[in-house]
Known about the structure:
Layout: E1 2-7, H1 10-20, E2 24-28, H2 34-41, E3 46-49, H3 58-63, E4 69-72, H4 83-87, E5 92-93, H5 99-103, H6 107-121, H7 123-131, E6 149-153, H8 157-168, E7 172-176, E8 187-189, H9 192-198, E9 201-204, H10 218-223, E10 228-232, H11 241-250, E11 253-258, H12 271-276, E12 282-284, H13 293-312
Parallel strand pairs: 1-2, 1-3, 3-4, 4-5, 6-7, 6-9, 7-8, 9-10, 10-11, 11-12
Helix pairs in contact: 1-13, 6-8
Amino acid sequence: MLKIVYVGAREGCEAAQSVLASIADVIHLDPPTSSGLWEALSDADALLDASMKVRVTNEMVAAASRLRVVSCATTGSDHIERNTLTDRDIPVFTLKEDPELLQNLTPAAELTWALLLACARRLPAAAEHVREGGWVREDFPGIMLNGKTLGLIGCGRIGGWLARYGLAFGMTVIAYDPYIDSLPEGVTSRDLKDLVQESDFISMHVHLNDETNGLLSRELLGKIKHGAVVINTSRGALVDEAALLEALESGRVSAAGLDVLNGEPQIQKHPLVEYAQRGDNLIITPHCGGFSPDAVKKVSRRAAEKILYTLSGERK
């Protein structure tokens, strides 16, 4: 039997096993660690990564002499070093190849909207206030979304869902996306500078690459509409995090909701985490936007099907 290493939630492992049981043993790496992945890959034929928690290095791949395919149950794969994989012609699959499947997976969009609402209404601070015995509503003024402007940096699959949510709440929705010919109905195009100057809420929905690294820069954050809210559930490196911290401290950005940080999951001494521990205008969640058992099963099954076809030629 072949050996497949699975990194991710239990539900996804079960879905992968249902696809691959006829040709392989699926080994669940739990908990995922760098040393554990190195050892597990040493005699593995494939890696199914539904986690992104452990960096896959060139050295790991070089030591994995039997490795023939890597399949990610995620859209991103920036945690995987590619040099050795490319040299050995080992394919790396991601969910970017599955637009129809992705279109109806909404957990990341839903968490993005939840963060936006939580920032607008200062929900964590208000709930903590009551837990401590308080009942002073005037300490927690909310931002009414109706009539405000939502600016989307990227208006693809997830950005498109955010546009729907914003329009349903009576917001004006504008977007910057030079790679889309036609924006969703009701959404108006803006260049990036105008978007940050006009938007009451800014939400990031682009892939991380050389072009988008630091896209929401110090310069743009300096031009942002005073009191705007910033939401990022895509990748931490899209935002100049040091500049965002300064904007939160000064009040130029009134609040931020982040599901991603640069350098995650090693975040214990991250400046934004340290700020969130003392400030109530920053909400950080542990890159859980795409994590829903329902969704994990679907995407892990699809990633496993790609491994099945690569290793056996069998379509499922």
